[in-house]
Amino acid sequence: MNELQQVLLIFAIIVIVGLYFLQKVKARNSDNTAQDVTDTKESSSRQDAYNALKELGEAHIPLSNRTQNRLHVEEEEEQVPESQLGLSFGQEFEVEKPKESNAAEGATETDIETHRKPKHVVLEVEDMKPIGSEGEPASASDYEPSFGIPEEGIQKAESDADVEQKEPQVFAIIVMGTDDFLWPKVNQTLQGVGLVPSETGIFVKNDSMGNEIIRVANLIEPGTFPLDQPTNSELKTVGVVLILELPTTVKAPAVMHDMIMMSRKISQRLNGRLYDANRHLLKESDLQAMRDAAVAYESSAI
């Protein structure tokens, strides 16, 4: 190491030591400054608190002269009645009653009792007689309550009920195709839509009580089916007719809906079409007219 390097090294050490001491001095001065600031703040806050406490005793709002005079005037002694001074805490008051004559007291008590007693109204019924004729004992059957309904109204309602009765109405839907239907196919289709054979040789739909509501007959005279030959393929028919006669044990709109839906299923399975009683092709508007007629029939007076 030459002399130049030694000189530089010594100079660097001196600089580092100087910087170290300078940093120490600055840190000490900053600590003293912070401490002074803290002390100053504490002293100022203490001074403020002291001043606030000192000012509490002073009046914030100046008082008028009249108020000052009223405060310095000596309080006058209260004048308490002698009757109150003589009472101890919890002692009952004794009120002296005015003296009156015995006759006046008796009259007053009688009047008070008269006013206090409830007033009763006595009903007097004159000429009480039995319901039956004179000389005959009355019985419960001699009198029948009307319950506010006039006798003429009851008789009129009964007569109207006898007169107003629904007239029966018959609706029919025919299912036919371009070709005749084979009897085994017809038999299978009718039983598949919920119809059952009856003793009269036709198919019927019954309600839950076993009453007939819809009947299905053969278009070929006499209208019956060969129920004893269910698999005879040689037998054919030109079509079937669904018959509904109102009234039934089921509501008219409901049973009409069942017949229309049943006729549609039968026509789809047999590849046929729907016709009315005059063998005119039925449209959707015609079926809706049948539904409306059933609703009108149900809503008519009974």
Describe this structure in words.
The protein is an alpha+beta fold and 302 residues long. The protein has helices at residues 3-56, 65-72, 82-85, 102-116, 151-163, 183-192, 252-270, 284-299, and strands spanning 169-182, 196-197, 203-206, 212-218, 236-246, 273-275. The protein has a six-stranded antiparallel sheet with strand order 2-3-4-5-1-6, with helices on one face. Helix 7 (252-270) runs antiparallel to helix 8. It is elongated, with a radius of gyration of 60 Å. The model has no long low-confidence stretch (mean pLDDT 77).
Q: What distinguishing features does this structure have?
A:
302 residues, alpha+beta, Cell Division Protein Zipa, Chain: A, six-stranded antiparallel sheet, 8 helices, 46% helix
State the gist of this model.
By secondary structure, the chain is α+β, with helices and mostly antiparallel strands.
The CATH superfamily name of the domain at 169-299 is ZipA, C-terminal FtsZ-binding domain
Proportion of residues in extended strands: 5-15%
Put simply, the count of helices is 8
- Assembly level: single chain
CATH architecture of the domain at 169-299: 2-Layer Sandwich
Question: Into which percent range does the helicity of residues fall?
Answer: 40-55%
Shape: elongated
Q: Please mark out the parts with pLDDT under 50 across 5 or more consecutive residues, or reply none.
A: none
Secondary-structure-derived class? alpha+beta
